[in-house]
Every structure is written in structure tokens, then in C-alpha cells.
Amino acid sequence: MRTKYVGLVVLIFSSVLGWRSAAERLSGAVTESTTTGPPAVSSVQLPQPDPAFKGVIGETYKDSTPSYPLPVKALKGSPNVLVILLDDVGFGMCSTFGGPVPTPNMDALANNGLKYTRFHTTALCSPTRAALLAGRNHHSCGTGVIIEMGTGYPGYTGVIPKSTALVSEILRDNGYATGMFGKWHNTPEPDISPAGPFDRWPTGVGFDYFYGFNQGETHQYYPTIYRNATWTPQPKTPEQGYHFTADMTDEAIAWTRNVRAADPDKPWFNYFSTSGVHAPHHAPKEWREKYVGKFDHGWDRQRELTLAKQLEMGIVPKGTKLTPRPKEIPAWDEQKPEAKQVYARLMENYAAYMAYTDYEVGRLIDSLRASGELDNTLVMYVVGDNGASAEGGLEGTFSEIASLIGVQLGLESTLKRLGEIGGPTSEPHVPVGWAWAMNAPFQWTKQVASHFGGTRNPMVVHWPKGIQSKGEIRGQFHHVIDVAPTILEACKIPEPKVVNGIPQKPIEGVSMLYSFDNAKAKDRRTTQYFELATNRAIYHDGWVACSKYGLPWETAGRGDGFLTAPWELYNVDKDFSQADNLAAKEPLKLKELQAKFLDEAKKYGVFPLDPRFSERMDPKLRIAGDPKTSWTYYGNSVWLPEPIGPQLFPRPHSITAELVIPKGGAEGVITCAGAFSAGWSLYVKDGKPNFRYTFFDIADVSIPSSETLPEGKVTLKTEFTPDGTKEGGGTLEFFVNGKPAGGGKLRRSVFRHGLEPFEVGRDSITPVSPGYKTPFAFTGMIDKVTFELTKK
Questions:
Q1: Nearest 5°: phi and psi at 129?
Q2: How many Å apart are CA 545 and CA 536, to the nearest integer?
Q3: Is 277 helix (H, G, I), strand (E, B) or coil?
Q4: Helix pair 125-134, 483-490: axis angle to 10 deg
Q5: Is the pTM of this model over 0.90?
Q6: Which of 461, 494, 525 delimits the end of a domain?
Q7: 140 within a domain of the structure (yes/no)
Q8: Whole-number Å distance between alpha carbons of 219 and 764
Q9: pLDDT level of residue 554 (50, 70, 90 thresholds)
Q10: Residue 174 to residues 73, 84, 89, 488, Cα–Cα distance (Å)
Q11: Are β-strands 230-232 and 225-227 bridged in parallel, bridged antiparallel, or unpaired?
Q12: Are residues 500 and 644 both part of a single domain?
């Protein structure tokens, strides 16, 4: 009986812990395990297998020796890793690299570390971020464009494949704590919903903790924030001093301190991805005041001043030329006084935002210095995910969302609200001229992957325990795909071959560690392609061949002229700024590099080339089958990113709400989408339905119903009938229990309304209508709301 009992117990244990063969266990033989456990650090297969039992099994615990399965630990002395990524910062913006905006905290890191002046990005947000974390080219990561523009081709899905595991996952599975703060922009847009799937949110790709926003931009005073995978309201109001950059910094500091409090030895990886300085450009008033009058000399003169400073500092080689202003960008001296006033104010605000971002980065660095962790923290500080952005248009804008969807509000719109720029009621963006100036001495801007104005972003590396050199410049040619392999080499972690059972594409980047203490080390990156919306280039052995097509501030209707767009040729070993086009003088070299580009494009999934930009935001490109024409939601609590919700304007549609109105009436928001600056809201106030549509100055209308909602069960319906104009205007009518109840006209509507969500039952962040204060939750019962596209 006793033998059977022991056998049964051991069988149960064996099924749980996976011990040795059944015959050995049932025999009662008790021996010490000879199977070795997992290595102390990293394996080429992740996650690492469960540790083998190393103890002794007797008949009772008294004659047995336990061996508790401990988690994988990083190698003793492994560095922390802090990757700081700024957004939309040009090569010539920050003082660290000769620019006009003081960045003393970046300066301090550079003076005690290294400045890389030939580092490159992809020229756009999501592609750079995917490439940075994966260590592969952006097309290899399925991210040839931003996630909102994914199409059905392998290089352009907007979906990072499982075969390109991110460095966050590799570090986590090798004993690191991992946290991500700020802008993500790498989750497929359809997945940004309460239904997920969540496997491509930060917490699904190796980050233990996430505090930030998931799409390309957010309002700094009224952000759309997620904690892990759940929307969370901001902790205080702008009137109480709230700004998202400070909030994410507070969260990052608290996270690193809590990790260290919980485990004094566990290294961490912090991906600190700031909003700064992506539009909307928001800077606290006290910071804006520091820059009043600082840019009255204009963008042409600023480029001259920046190059002079870069030459003085040794940021650029002697003899570097200032590339000329393209004919498409107007001269500063040709602008009218009121235009100069607007443009200077927009630039003052942009500069203030950068300076403020530097201050907040400095707070994070100071916290590490105070805790004694900075010396053994590898800081890789990438100064921009692309060049400065020209997406604000030639005149700049009070609403960057309007500009992105092709609506120019005009100079007058900004002029009459000059005092609001940078504050909570604005969503501003600088004009093209200032974006171009911030990329000095290079040509062009963000989106233009053919030229260094779009792709050359400097980088600072700081690691006192790992780098002997201090305050030096490094001129090796590198790319953002080189960040991940650098981290792995510094942490002594091998590249995994299999992750979660999926074979991995080889990492395509090269480690930069070889250059840390050797300024004269020969470049290990000798070839690199660039491509973004048919702007393309190839770097090879000191030469660049490139072809530019379209203007970055023209977001639609670019056509197929890229097929015949001219190519340029530069010897960038001798011509740092791409100032001397040698295409006519060196036709054979140009032909050689064009062939090289084709080879690289085929290798990394660049084809098919596609010049479309905003057209690719069409959700039909990311669904199977016919697009939805109706949506139904139940209850008083629905919250979705607007692109996941019903796609209504400017198309003909109806909204039908089945409500229960209590005795005494009800009030509140039935359904809405968007924000105070751009959005729509169907709500009840003083017993009557109202519809509000706003899009800054060009579409701003409140339509009240003529009828009061009765008590009990009520069906409230609106119908929108477009007028056929290109502005998307039309007539909106109310119906209460099937009977006409008034209406009115919309003179304009657009297909997206910015950064805030679609909701049923409330308006959570900023009020679409000035007629109520958020959340203005509906006090009746919403049985269901149905949205239908109609054929009118």
C-alpha cells in the first residue's frame, strides 16, 4: 500500500514538474538530479526553458532537498539601458549640435559621452520606432509607413511580424525589467480597442509596463493615455499645471525607483519616447516667454547662424556648405509683416517645447544620478525619429490635424488667435520654412527619405562605466537599426534564433560598440537603403544616390511621377551636407548605385513602391471583405479610438438611439467623437436633443431639436444628407419617435476629428460642445445606438 502511495505522489509531482522517467521514479530510487539548469543569462531560444530540478527527492520532505525554480537573472553587473527618443527634431535644432534651442541637459550628457553626427533614421515615425526596437529595416518589420497607412503588402502592413522580436522582449527574457513611456505608434490601428488583440501593444512585445499613448500624436494638455492596455484619465487639469511630458517623466522616474526598491540587482530597460516635439506643439507659458523675439531674423538667416555654430563646434567638417533654399519654400524677406509675426510666434513656441522637453529629460537623468544608477546606465539618446516636420504647411497652422488631412485654415485663422499658440486651446504647427531651418545644413524635411534633412538625426551615447572617451564626436555612418544590436552586445546577450517558437529573421543592424572608444574605427555599416513613399536613396561606401518625389506638406494626390523623377548623386565622404550633385559628372557611379538600391529593395521588402500618403489612411486597405456600413453599441459606456468606431462624415448616414428617459427628464451626451477643436456630439440639454459639429473656424455649428424628449421609451434619430460639395456639407435632421423634430445645416465635415475617442454615454476628455462640461454623462438609459450609412 505504501509503495502505491509513494508512486502516486511522485507521479503527481512528475506531471507538474517534469522530473525523470516514470520507471526510475516508481522504483523508489532516489538520486540527485544531474540535469543542468538554464544558463545564468540568455539563450538563442526565448523564452528560456523552465529550470530543471536540482534537488533530491526522498519519500518525505525530511530526507529530500528542495530546489526552487528561480527566475532567469541577467549577468551580474549588467547595465541598465535607457533609450530616449525625441520626435520631429531636426539635426540643426538643439544647441548640442549647433542649433538655436538651448538643451543644457542634452549638452551635459554629450560632454560626458559621445556625439554621433552621421546617424540616421527612416524619415517617419512608426518606421523608425519599429526599426529601432527590432534591429531590422523598417520594411523588414512590415512598417514601411506609419501604422495608420498600412496596406496589404509584406513591407507595408503596419504589423510588426513575430519573426522580428523586439529588443524589449529579448531583454525581458534575459532577466531585465522593462518599461515604456510616451509615444508608441506601433500597434496596428484596428487593434487599438478594448477588444485588442493586445499582442502588439507594448505589454505584448516585451514591456512589463506601459504609460503613454498609442497613436501618432496626442494633445499635451488633454492626452489620450493608456496604462498598460487600459485608458486612464489624466491625473490633473491644465489649470493645475498638467502637461503630458511632465506626467510621463514622473511615471518613468517612479517606475525605475520602484524596480530598484523591489530588487537591488535587477537591471532595467526604459524606453522613454517623448511627445516632444511632434505637433501639436504645446509648451507651458513660462517657457514660451523665454523665446519671444528670438526668431525675428527668420528662417534663412537662422540656417546661416546654425551652420556657423556647427562649424565652430566641429559638428560638421570644415568646408561643409549650406544647401540652398528650394524654390518651393518662400524666402523670409518676402513675407508680409503680419505673416512674419505669426511665423515667428509659431517658432518661438516650437523652440519652447524643445527646451521644455530637454528640461523633463533632465529630470529623469537627475533622478538616476541621485540614485547612483547613472554611471552604469547605457543611455542612447536619439535626437528625433526623423527630421523636423513640414506637415504644418507653408503658412503653419493653428490646427495640425486640419493640415494633416489637407485642410489649410489660413494665416488669418492663426493671426486672430496669436495669444493662444502653445496653450490648451491651440493645436499648432510651424510653417515649412522653420522646419527646413531646423534641419540645417541639409536639404528637405521629415518624410523626405532621399535627403539627410529627413533622415540624419544626431545621437548622444552616455555610459560612464562602459565608455572611456568623454565629450568626443563620432563620425561613423550608422542607422537606427544599429541601436538594438548595440544594446545586446553591451549587455552580453546573444541574438535569439527562436522566440516563442518562431524562427527569427536575422538582425540587420550592426553594433556600434566598436566605435565607443575608437574615434578612428573603420565604419562597419557600409550600405544602407532609405525609402518612404517613393522618396528613396542608397548609401554605399561613402556615396549616396537618391531620388525625391512630391512635397511633404502635400499629403494627397501625388500621382505616379516618381517613375520619371530624377536621381541625384553625392560623395558624402567629402560633401557632408549633400550640397554638390555629381549625377551629371559620374553617370557610371550613379548607375551602379541605382542597381544597388534595387538589390537592397528586393532583399528587404521595399516593393511595391507607392507614392500615396493620406490616401492610404482608407480603412478598406486594412480589412478583409466589404467595409462595414452599420455599427451597433449597447449601454451607456462605450469608449473606442475614433478610427475603430463608426465612420460617418462626410457620408450620408443615420444615428438611431433607443433610450429610456426617467421621470423628470434626462440630460447628457448620447454619443460623440473628437474634441473641443474638431468633433461631433449628439447630446440632450434642457430636455431637448442637440447636435454639435466643430472643426476649428471653418465648421462650427450647433443644431437644436425643436422637440422635448418625452419620459419612457424614446427613439431619437438623426439623418445627415450631404449636399454634394467637396467641403462635405449637408443637412442634419432630427426625428423623435419617428416624427420630424427640427434640423439644420453643416457647411463642412471631415472624415477624422483628431485625437480624442468615439464614445457612447459621455464625453470623457474635452467637450465637443461649449454647451456642457465633461464628462456630461447621460442620466437616462441607452438601450442601444445604431449608426448606418445610407444611400441618399
A1: -65, -40
A2: 9
A3: coil
A4: 30
A5: yes
A6: 525
A7: yes
A8: 14
A9: confident
A10: 7, 21, 33, 10
A11: antiparallel
A12: no
Q: What is the pLDDT of residue 457?
A: 98
In what order do the strands lie in the sheet containing 502-503? 45-46, 498-499, 502-503
Average pLDDT over residues 360-379: 98
Write the DSSP string, 132-187. HHHSS-TTTTT-SS-GGG--SSGGGSS---TTS--HHHHHHTTT-EEEEEEE---S
- How many residues appear in the chain? 792
Helix (H) or strand (E) run with residue 595 in it: helix 587-604
The answer to whether residues 656 and 631 touch, using CB atoms and an 8 Å cutoff, is no
Query: Are 680 and 674 contacting, i.e. CB atoms less than 8 angstroms apart?
Result: yes
Edge-to-edge order in the sheet of strand 543-547: 527-532, 535-540, 543-547, 568-571
> Same domain, yes or no, for 54 and 122?
no
Give the end-to-end CA distance of the chain in Å, rounded to a whole number: 83
Residue 43: its pLDDT value, please?
74
Q: What is the CATH number of the domain that holds 216?
A: 3.40.720.10
The C-alpha cell at 99 is 542649433
Count Cα atoms within 13 angstroms, Cβ side, for 379.
30
Q: Is the pLDDT of residue 65 over 50?
A: yes
Per-residue 3-state assignment (H helix, E strand, C coil) for 181-222 = EEECCCCCHHHCCCCCCCCCCHHHCCCCEEEEECCCCCCCCC
Neighbours of 593 (CB within 10 A): 23
Locus of grid cell 471631415: 750
Cell of 682: 449628439
In this structure, the strands spanning 653-661 and 712-722 are: antiparallel
- Tell me: pLDDT of 8 over 50: no
Host domain of residue 59 = 2-63
Flag whether pLDDT at 156 surpasses 60: yes
For residues 610 and 144, give the distance between their C-alpha atoms in angstroms, rounded to a whole number. Answer: 10
| 83 closest CA partner among 465, 483, 359 | 483
Give the C-alpha separation, 465 to 57, whole Å. Answer: 45
* CA–CA gap between residue 491 and residue 488 (Å, rounded): 5
Asked which of 496, 525, 554 is the last residue of a domain, the reply is: 525
Phi/psi of residue 342, nearest 5 degrees: -65, -50
Angle, CA 471 vertex, CA 470 and CA 477 arms, to 5°: 100
126 and 267 in a single domain? The answer is: yes
- Residue 399, pLDDT score: 87
Could you give the 3-state DSSP secondary structure of residue 526?
coil
Task: Please tell me the least confidently modeled range out of 71-75, 405-409, 501-505, 743-747.
Answer: 405-409
Residue 36: the pLDDT is 38
Nine-digit cell string for 305: 547662424
Look up residue 165 and give its three cell numbers.
522580436
Q: What is the mean pLDDT of residues 318-326?
A: 98
Mean pLDDT confidence for 188-192: 91
* Gyration radius of the chain over CA positions: 29
Residue 749 has pLDDT above 60, yes or no: yes
Residue 609's SS3 state is: coil
| Cβ pair 146, 185 in contact under 8 A | yes
